[in-house]
Predict the 3D structure of the following.
Amino acid sequence: MPKVRRILCHVSVEIVERQRVCHRDRAGHTIRKGQSCLVVTDNANRSTKNYCPECAYAILDQAEADLNRMKTELEDVGTSA
Ligand SMILES: [Zn+2]
């Protein structure tokens, strides 16, 4: 059985060791030492963006909705064939 390909390699959660700034609200959101944050890596320009837990939930909720929509699209095609 071939391994299932993982496609979310550019997204991870890290516990920060030094304070970071949330990319969504640089002035208002701080990620403090010991807090978790969502790290999104952009391989095209080799940059990473950090998001505080509050913003990370919104991003992951959107991703979940997108994944579910794609699953539904696959099912739609699958059943009409
Ligand atoms: Zn934030």
User: Anything to note?
Assistant: The mean pLDDT is 93. The helical segments are 53-80.
